[in-house]
Every structure is written in C-alpha cells, then in structure tokens.
Amino acid sequence: MSEIKKGFIYVLANSMMPNIVKVGLTQNAPETRAAELSSATGVPTPFILVYEKYVSDCVAAEKFVHTLLESQGYRVAKNREFFQAPVKAVIEAILALPDELIADSNNQFSGSFASKNEPWRDLWDHAETLCFGKNGEIQDIKEAVKLYKKAIKLGCKLAYYRLGTIYSGIFRDIEINFETAFEYFKAGAYKGHDFCWLSLANQFLIKHEIDNAIKSLGKFILSIIERPDEIIKNSLGVDVPSLLTSTSIRLSTVCDKITLFSEHQPFKSTTNNQLGLVLELLCNYLATKDYLIIGRLAKLGINFDAKNEQGQTCLMSLCEISSDLSLVKAVAKHSCLNAFNPRGLTPLMFAAASVRTNICNFLIKAGAWVAQRDMVGETAAYYWRTYGKEMIPDWLSECSARGVAETRIVDFNRLKIFAYTKQDEKILLKKILLEEQVVKDQWKSPAHQKKMADCISNLQKELETNIRNVASNALSATVEKTYKRK
User: Fold this and answer.
1) Looking at the whole model, is its pTM more than 0.85?
2) 3-state secondary structure of 15
C-alpha cells in the first residue's frame, strides 16, 4: 500500500495555451513547482499559479479531480495533466474533494461543495440509465460498468453495491465473478454502504463461511435499527424484506436440518421463515444480547406471523429448536400464539414435542390453547406423551379446567376458515380465564363431587364387568378346545 502524502493540488495556466490548464500535485510549494516547469526549454512562456489547495492525500486528491474533470469531457489526453476547461470549473472540481481529503478543516470551502453537490451524481445517473435501459436508452451493461467505476473514484458508495450485484450474475453481458463481487461488496460495506453487509452475508454463504455470514447479517440488521428511514426508503429501490427472506433461506440451506419430533419421524423442516432465523442469530451473536431488538424490528413493520415454505411462523420455529425462554417471550409478544401450519401444528405443540416445560407453561399462561387439535385430531398433550415419552401434566391436559373453559369459549370450527388475530387472542384469553375459574368453582361444588364420584363408580363397575366378560370368554374358549381334543 502506497504511503499517504500530504501536499498541494495546484492549477497552472500558460499564455501560450489559451483555455488549457494543468492540474497536478506537489509536496513542495506550488510556486516552486510552477518555476520548475517554467524553466524547461520546451516552454516558451512561464506558467502562472492560478489556484492551490492543501490536502491530506495529494495522490488521491489529484486522482479524484482528474476523474471528475475527465467525466465532464475536459481532459486533453489520458496520460497528460492538461485540461481544456474554464478555470472556474477546475476550481469547483477541487472544492468538491471529499472531507477526508481536506487537510485544513477550518477552510471555509472544506467539504461544502461536495456535500451540496455530489460530483459523482451525473455519472451515476447515466450509468443507471445504461444499466437498466431507462429513458429510451439502449441497455449497455459494459459501458455502465465503466461509468460505475469512475463514479467510485468520485466517492459514490452506491456504485460498490451495483457493481457487486452485476458481477454476481444478474446480467448476462457480464461474466460471473464472485471474487470480484465479494471485493466490491466488502469495500462498499467498509465505506458505509449498509446493503453491502447483507450482500456480503450471501457471499460468505457461497464460501461456506457461516460465522462471517452471521456477523455480516447482524451488522445489516443493526443498520436497519439505527437508520430505519434511510434503509427502508433507499434510493436503490431495494426491497428489504425480500432481501432478508432470501438471505435467511440461503443461510438455512447450508445449516444442518433439524428433526421436527424424533429420528423416526420422516417429516423434517428448516428454520427458513422470514425472520425466525435472523432473530435467533441476532440474539445469539450480537454483542448487545438485547432482546429489545425484536421490538424495534416489530415497530418497523416486520410481520412475525409470516410463514415459510413449510407453513411455519417464527414462533413455531423457535419453539421447535430453542430453549431460550427470553427469546420466545420476546417473539411471542408480537406473534399469534395459536397460529398453525398446514398440519395444524401450533407453537405449543412444537414445544410439547420437545418437552420444553418452561416454554409450554409460558405459552399457556400467555393464551395458547391446550384444547386446540391438529388436522388428525390430536392436542399438544398427545405430542408431549408420544415424542417426549413422559406423563402428561395436568396443566397440559384438555380435560383440565383450562381445557374445558377453552372448549366452551373458543369456536375451534372457525379455525378451519378464519384464523384468530393477536387481538382476538387477547380478548378470548380474558374470557377463558374467567370461565376457567367458573369451571374450578363448579368442580368444588358438592353436586359436582357427587357426579364425579358416581362417574368413577360407574367406570369401576364397567371395568369389572369387562374383566369378568374377558375371563368368562377365555374360560369358555379353553373348555371348548379341551372338549375338541377329547
């Protein structure tokens, strides 16, 4: 890497070269440089110093000014520092230098021209027109690439992202080169273009560098939180949710698939819903470990009930793979607790299948329905017993006071046509809790106690009758076999 050198950008004029100026650099006094050039025998008249500017990196500054003047058609020859341009235009080009190249921060012109007038804007607009064939122009990707590269020299951050996407293969005219795309995305990310972080995540996925993909994805999400308006209403016309979805799906395809219930269960799924995996990565890998991030994402309009290809929501995926109660609580706050996938499985059923006691308890207290059945008529208790191989706790049973109350209050037939919203669930939960207390009070009454005692007595009598019948049938069969042998 070349050493950064402070110095001057100067503008020289010569009476024998009307309308032509020389723009160069020097680390000495510009007057000295003008005298050196004037002393050459091939110069009939001396050079006059028209303008000078002290900069922090004279090489980069000269390159910037030359590129800007060349883009405006002023350059006489590519290998010469002479420009056929009005002196005013040349001075304006120097005043357009980025702030980081201005050595004297107290200069009244420092950065003012560059901030009000983007020197790369005309190049960028023309490149976009050629790239996408806008305004009746013939599409010319190769020429657009040249213009994007010139725009980068003038400080255009947008061009890094565009060149990265071009070399990633979105146009047939340009050969796919993932290494080149990676370098543009990387440079753009560190220059401050946030979308390049998301694209870097995809590039790291291609290389199977999962940790780096996760870090890049985290940086992009943080940029959304810090600058939501700037990111969502971007000048590139990028659809943020679609990009996040695409990245999440690609990330899930290189991760190990997760068995839904057991090794013997043929059905498998991956956590590639819109934000399920993204949220998990955030909470696991961001240094802040701040679950409030989820709330901030919700305020941005992220739909936590969006379903993936398997029909799972973010909450379902988390209940399936995560035992982090704090994370589940944060997501559940913005999700429908009783949403179901095409098989009728709810978040509570996913948690029950993995015997996550604390998560099941939380979901039920928050409003998850223990009496809800899947498409084959099974409740969460069935998955607890079948896949967890454990006794069903009273609070998970559909025969509990809670289950009876839900059956009385919730119209489960409606679920076949219309899903309940988060607001519906809140209203129903209040009614269910009141009804649950009514059920408990009824069960404590003498009449109910007598009814239960009679029911148990009848069941015992029925059981005894069945046992006698089985024994009698077995005895008859034995006698019959013995008689036939004789």
Assistant:
1) no
2) coil
The amino acid at 220: F
CATH C-level class of 121-232: mainly alpha
Which residue stretches of 54-140 are H helix? 58-71, 87-95, 112-116, 121-132
Rounded mean pLDDT of the chain? 75
Contacts 24+ apart (CB under 8 A), 268-273: 269/310, 269/312, 269/317, 269/320, 270/308, 270/310, 271/308, 271/312, 271/317, 271/320, 271/321, 272/248, 272/308, 272/309, 273/248, 273/306, 273/307, 273/308, 273/312, 273/313, 273/314, 273/317
The CA distances from residue 463 to 13, 173, 371, 452, 458, in Å, are 114, 81, 27, 16, 8
The candidate with the shortest Cα–Cα distance to 283, out of 293, 295, 297, is 293
User: Which parts of the chain sit beneath pLDDT 70?
Assistant: 1-4, 41-42, 103-118, 224-302, 308-310, 389, 416-417, 452, 483-486
- Place domain 256-443 in its CATH homologous superfamily: Ankyrin repeat-containing domain (1.25.40.20)
Measured CA to CA, the distance from residue 353 to residue 330 in angstroms comes to 21
Where are the domains positioned within the chain?
Answer: 7-116, 121-232, 256-443, 445-486
Please state, as a whole number, how many other Cβ atoms lie within 10 Å of the Cβ of residue 110.
Answer: 18
Instruction: Check: CB of residue 90 under 8 Å from CB of residue 96.
Output: no
Same fold, 121-232 and 256-443: yes
Give residue 181's identity as a one-letter amino acid code: A
Residue 109 token pair: 């012109």
Residues 358-391: tens digit of each pLDDT: 999 999 999 999 999 888 888 998 889 888 767 7
Structure tokens at 62: 């000269």
